[in-house]
From TrEMBL:
This is Aminoglycoside phosphotransferase family protein. Pfam families: APH. Gene3D superfamilies: 3.90.1200.10. InterPro entries: Aminoglycoside_PTrfase, Kinase-like_dom_sf. GO terms for molecular function: transferase activity. Keywords: Transferase.
Amino acid sequence: MANYIKRRLPAAAGSIAAELRMAEAEVRFYREVAPEIGVRVPECYRAELDDEGSLLELEDLSTWRQGADPGAAATLLRSMHDRWVDRAHVRWPWLRPIGAGDELVARLYDDTWPKLAARSDLSAPVREFGARLVGKVLQVEARVLEAGPLTLVHGDASAPNLRTAPDGEIALLDWEDVSAAPGVIDLTWHLVSSVPPAQWAEALAAYGPSDGLRTALPSSMVQGYLSMADWPEGSEEAAAFNERLAAGVAML
């Protein structure tokens, strides 16, 4: 089977990808972090970065099932977080810190909200909470630092970035958002992006103690609103985001 080739051209100046140096972060992840991370990730055969962009040659896991059982995914995230708590940012000081890109995200949210608020597929609680976030995203993001000790986080632990092998092994893909942050931010985004509310309790129980959950959750909900805005009004995907955002509102 051919390997998976991932090429990225240089990000446009001023974009979130450029601001966060996402391509560089992923290349450095596969060069430096992957060999000792302690969880399953694709094998990397080439990891290059130059003025023409980035190139990764990775193990092809396309035959594995996309996504993972919520409890199993939460257990995997917890094992990674526990392994690197208070260590990741010391071992790899280049890891993206909390706060990187927050001004761009805040501006994007405020610019996106009027169009999102006009949609008919936002339930009333989701619309009301979303309106309260306007002008306050920077404060929401700043509070993530209070959610727990720093550890290694994936940054986008959504179903499309998880693969499950026939024997149940789970791999984490796409490490462009790898960061040093409280681990619970991976859990809250996994819930908001991918887990039906009926299974949130299962994921939370599998993850274990998560005292900073409600501190980190609004940040993940900001991303949830922005992700919902990418889907057509009335689509199944948008409806699922609304349902998960509503669960988040109820939890807060």
